[in-house]
Amino acid sequence: MNEANEKGPILIMIDADACPVKNEAYKVAERHDVKTFVVANSWINTPRDPMIERVVVPAGPDVADDWIAERARPGVVVVTADVPLAARCQKAGAHVIAPSGRAFTEQSMGMALAVRNLMDDLRSQGETTRGPPPFSPKQRSEFLSALDLALVRLVRAGFPKR
User: Fold this and answer.
1) Are 162 and 8 within 8 A, CB to CB?
2) Is the pLDDT of residue 66 over 90?
3) What DSSP element (H or E) covers 52?
4) What is the pTM assigned to this prediction?
């Protein structure tokens, strides 16, 4: 068996609980004919499409993250703003994109984890920190471009769509 035959199909996995770009991901996935998993610990409305699968995991800390991370591999695009989940998936070879369109790479992961841990420490010490700014149309556009580019690169690398 050659390397191309060993590659699993391209998949998109969305960490869906607080994802502001689910609809954008559905549009890109449909255009590329790629299976998409929408993972959450509660019921989330998804389009009636055989290529979009809703996965409702049991309630609990990191259950949805664990489901996604266990299936992360080369050929999978994970959409998440969760930095620890992004690190796990990136380490497994998946391509990870934040809803803002920023790719989590091996080079950027250390800084992203450090900032996340610093903010977590500040909050645990009682500091009031701001949440992220409102989501902008520019970020939606950047996400669309980043997801499209990731899927094009996977196809060029020989990953099958189905």
Assistant:
1) no
2) yes
3) strand 52-56
4) 0.84
